[in-house]
Amino acid sequence: MTAKILVLPGDGIGPEITAQAEKVLEVLRAKYKFDVEWTHGLLGGAAYDATGEPLPAATLEAARKSDAVLLAAVGGPKYDTAPRDKRPERGLLGIRAGMGLYANLRPAILYPELAAASSLKPELVADLDVLIVRELTGGIYFGQPRGIEVRDGVRVGINTEVYSEPEIERIARTAFDAAQLRGKRLCSVDKANVLESSELWRETVIRVGRDYPDVQLTHQYVDNAAMQLVRAPKQFDVIVTSNLFGDILSDIAAQLTGSIGMLPSASLNERGQGLYEPIHGSAPDIAGKGVANPLAMILSLAMLLRYSLKRGDLADKVQKAVRHVLADGLRTADIARSGEKTVGTLEMGEAVVGRL
Ligand code: IPM
Ligand code: MG
Fold first, then answer.
1. CATH superfamily of 1-118+259-356
2. CA 43 to CA 107: how far, in whole Å?
3. How far is the CA of 223 from the centre of ligand 2 (A)?
């Protein structure tokens, strides 16, 4: 059966890095006889410009019908003045919610070739392999009420952190399942000393944990977890946390591995469908300059092959090719040491294709 992928290039550096991932797909199709087809859809600012909506109905429809979605990035300063509900980020949140993508897996792996690019000492990050499981369709990102209104003559901004027990239970199971397949250690991150939503979070994770006696469960408050991630990151195997805390902690984890330009992610729903995207944003400051690192995007494609299309064999080939180009010394600016020669987006993409 032909695998059907919906590709969403989005904004900023999105189209540039998408082009490199598509070259990789071409090679898989031509050389490894991989039966795949893909179409493009609009999301984010690009969609708003073309249709007036950051998430056109046609995009969500196409996403639901595809076997998997590959998304680059959305957003840019151009849209700062757009109506709040038309901003590119709302398109991204809309497709996450619309597809029910509650589980966001963000693996932070340090490639030995990039140990010097990490901002931490090599001995602290050598062989780092942490998986952040971020809840993606709940919490303060979606809670009601929200908005900006006038109360007693002053403007107030309002957002609501809300988690139901089934939502917590569902993401906890995803994290425990993942931990069982890895180092069997799970750290749940919350702010249970202050927030009621976190109190329920912790209680629920502990209850779910009784079904996983082989997984060692620990808890950290988010402020401490942020500190521990930069103090001794190798203490972590799997981290499970809420939408907002996961957003913040995954950027920290990314920098530990040398660059946010290296980290892919998978967002999965209950039907096993997935959306795959690099965790970096649209990087408007370098958009159109041909210098963006396409590796997180290419590694996101590898995750798509593995998790949604069950082609671990092809995913292995792509990941190996990335390792090879790093070993060959190719560096985009974000992962280069000062004085080191750098390559652009295109050259990096072509090197991966060459290695395939
Ligand atoms: C991420 C991004 C998004 C998020 C933004 C672009 C809405 O930072 O995927 O981490 O906050 O989820
Ligand atoms: Mg983020």
1. Isopropylmalate Dehydrogenase (3.40.718.10)
2. 24
3. 17
What pLDDT is stored for residue 258 in this prediction?
Answer: 83
The atom of ligand 1 lying closest to the CA of 277 is 9
Question: What does the alpha-carbon distance between residue 66 and residue 125 come to, in Å, rounded to a whole number?
Answer: 38
Return the ligand 1 atom nearest residue 243 CA: 12
Q: How much is the pTM?
A: 0.93
Torsion-angle region of 12 (φ positive above 0: left; ψ -120 to 50: alpha; else: beta): left
Predicted confidence at residue 48, as pLDDT, reads: 98
Per-residue pLDDT tens digits for 38-70: 999 999 999 999 999 999 999 999 999 999 999
Say if CB 240 and CB 228 are below 8 A apart. Answer: no
* Active site members: 141, 191, 223, 247, 251
Instruction: Look up residue 337 and give its two tokens.
Output: 């040491």
Which part of the chain has CATH 3.40.718.10?
1-118+259-356, 129-256
Q: Which of 243, 234, 64, 91 is nearest to 168 (CA)?
A: 243
Backbone angles phi, psi at 223, to 5 degrees: -65, -45
Write the class of the CATH domain 129-256: alpha beta
Is the CB of 92 inside a 6 Å radius of any atom of ligand 1?
yes
Instruction: Give nearest CA residue, ligand 1 atom 10.
Output: 247
